[in-house]
Amino acid sequence: MLKQLFGFFAVLLSSPLMAQILVEDAHVRAMPPGVPNTAGYLQITSSEGDDQLLAARCEGVENTEMHTLLHEDGLTKMRPVAAIELPQGVAVILAQGGLHLMMMGLEATPEVGAQLSCELRFAKAPVQTVVFEVRDLKPSEHSHHHHH
């Protein structure tokens, strides 16, 4: 009986429908009061075959989109992407300056240390709820200007 049960679980675990997604270092940028948008960053690894991140929905956020930054003609442009490819075994990093979750229409400004819960939807893996920690991230060099 135990051997049959083990065999059943082995088949279940190797099923392509049960893609395993590992999410690490999920965090969002703390913003000044009154700023309605922020960005979410994380590392995603699909361990059971290729997958795609298709969408994200976060509590207290009107609209969450997946974006990338493109560098064209000396300008940096933000563009939405329909899906983020997750090749098997590769840690895909959503980080400042590249792919990220754009959280638009925050109901309230999240405080540093607070947590924000998001549902991530994948092409194959089941929906996963991920808790993002609000962090005070240093702005990139070109986002602050010194006036004399």
Automatic annotation (TrEMBL):
Signal sequence annotation: 1-19
Keywords: Signal
Pfam families, alphabetized: PCuAC (PF04314)
Family matches, as Gene3D superfamilies: PCu(A)C copper chaperone
Protein name per UniProt: Copper chaperone PCu(A)C
Record-linked InterPro entries: LpqE-like, Lxx211020-like, PCuAC_sf
